[in-house]
Amino acid sequence: MIPARLAFGIRPFGLAALALLTFVGVGAGQSGLEAEAARFAAAWEAGDYQALGRVMRSEGIRLQLRGEEHVSIKPKQAQAALKDFLDRYPARESEVKEVSATLGDPALGFAEISFQTGAPDIPDPVIFSLFVGFALESDTWRVTEIRVFY
């Protein structure tokens, strides 16, 4: 496992898909999706909820954490919920598993990130899957959705 802070961890077929999408015209923003996913994973691993909030779409995001779901929540509220979650389940390490993009207006991107954490009263590490949705807005990838699965 390669930590997100060291490498992207993209599967080979993901790179081919990203190259194809760039070739057919997703635009210059496509090349930044992998980097944005890696930065997101590193901020998650560091518990930096403020950095996570800075990349969220200002209109709001969909947020699904263990036991709670918000269809449209503003970045400040999402930051507070993420702080509580990351305080409860601090990430020990994270890895970007897959990154993909779709054509459209706006272009959309998706990242699957796994992270390992400890949990109260559980001696073994717990692995969560994190699904992050992005939209390309003015050549910047913005987070539109965060979902955590156990």
Concise structural overview:
With 150 residues, the chain is an alpha+beta fold. It has helices at 12-23, 31-46, 49-54, 75-88; strands spanning 61-65, 68-73, 91-102, 108-119, 122-137, 140-149.
Any key phrases for this structure?
150 residues; 4 helices; globular; alpha+beta; 6 strands; Nuclear Transport Factor 2, Chain: A
Describe the structure in your own words:
- The protein is an alpha+beta fold and 150 residues long.
- It has a single domain, classed as Nuclear Transport Factor 2, Chain: A (Roll), CATH 3.10.450.50.
- 32% of the residues lie in helices and 41% in strands.
- It is built from four helices and six strands, in the order αααββαββββ.
- It has a six-stranded mixed sheet with strand order 2-1-6-5-4-3.
- A hairpin with a 2-residue loop joins strand 1 and strand 2.
- The two termini are 19 Å apart.
- The N terminus is likely disordered.
